[in-house]
Amino acid sequence: MEAKRGPFTLLLRSWELSLRSNNRSPETIRSYLRSANLFADYLTDPPPPAKDSEIDPVPAVDDVLDIKRAHVQAFIVHEIGRTSASSARSRFLGVQAWLKWMVAEEELDRSPAEGVKAPTTEAPEVPILTPGQLQTLLKSVAGKEFPEVRDRAMILLWLDSGVRLSEVVNRTLDDVDLDQQVLHVMGKGSRGRAVPYGTKTAQAVDKYIRLRARHPYGKTVEHLWIGQKTKKPLTVSGAGKLLARRSEACGLGRIHPHQFRHTFAHMWLAAGGNETDLMRITGWKSRSMVDRYAASAGAERAREQHKKLSPGDRL
User: How far is 78 from 88, CA to CA, in rounded Å?
Assistant: First the structure.
């Protein structure tokens, strides 16, 4: 693959170094580089447009100075056809960032992506977890063995604090404050925050920490979460997989950790919690994120509110 995008290899490596030096999150770096590498592949060997496409074919290029706006637009169309509008949007944002960096580095005078709009997408409504599903899942980790105790504490933290998968997993013992009932996390943009959680979650985390102290590798691993049979910390990927196994084993299908974040937002708003506090807890800087996450089960909340506020019933 590297030989194919050879002309752009050094620029891609330099950009990766820049992303790391700016302390961008591993997830952002991975997504951006994937997008830029796909675009570099496309530039060196652009496939012909689909038969029903109105986009003209673009020539291959081996110099950034030859990248035109048409290349960016054709790449977007190609990605939409190859994957989806949502995926193409993500790829475009990565390419846009790469080209913008090249302008800042004076490799380009102007970004070929300037004026190109990202593909519009309809944000899918992420299914929230019902009380019955949550009870079934928690019942499956009600045992006293290390894996059950660990997974129960992790699941309750996801649900009770609305934290992201990586924010829960990439923690050390020092990040847990059982007295104040807060978890110190590092969010997007390297922004730290103290996330509160309830008493039941605190009890589950406390139980895990006490059991962790007796684990064979409990004194050699600094990270909060450790594997049952390994000397290594639990990874983000490993945590996602263990949740999938748990949920499928108890007949709930595959549950993704991010569903807890949507469920937390829904339950918070349904209980009358205000949006400003929700933003502080979740680490959102834009109110548009509240709208995005509130879309999950929004109709259900509206119906419940109508029962309380029905003009007809109040006559």
Answer: 8
88: which residues sit within 8 A by CB, 6+ positions away?
76, 79, 80, 119
Residue 25 lies in a domain: yes
Give the sheet arrangement for strand 176-177, strand by strand: 176-177, 182-186, 192-196
Which domain-ending residue is among 246, 261, 276? Answer: 261
Please report, for residues 7, 126, 240, 246, 260, the alpha-carbon distance to residue 256 in angstroms, rounded to integers and kept in the order given. 39, 10, 7, 11, 8
User: What residues does 183 pair with on adjacent strands?
Assistant: 176, 195
pLDDT at 56: 81
What is the number of structural domains in the chain? Answer: 2
| pLDDT one-digit tens code per residue, 86-109 | 899 999 999 999 999 999 999 999
Query: How much is the pLDDT for 70?
Result: 95
Q: Report the C-alpha gap between 58 and 46 in whole angstroms.
A: 7
CA pair distance 189, 23, nearest whole angstrom: 8
User: What is the extent of the structural domain holding 51?
Assistant: 6-104
pTM over 0.85: no
In a domain, 277, yes or no: no
Report if residue 300 sits inside a domain.
no
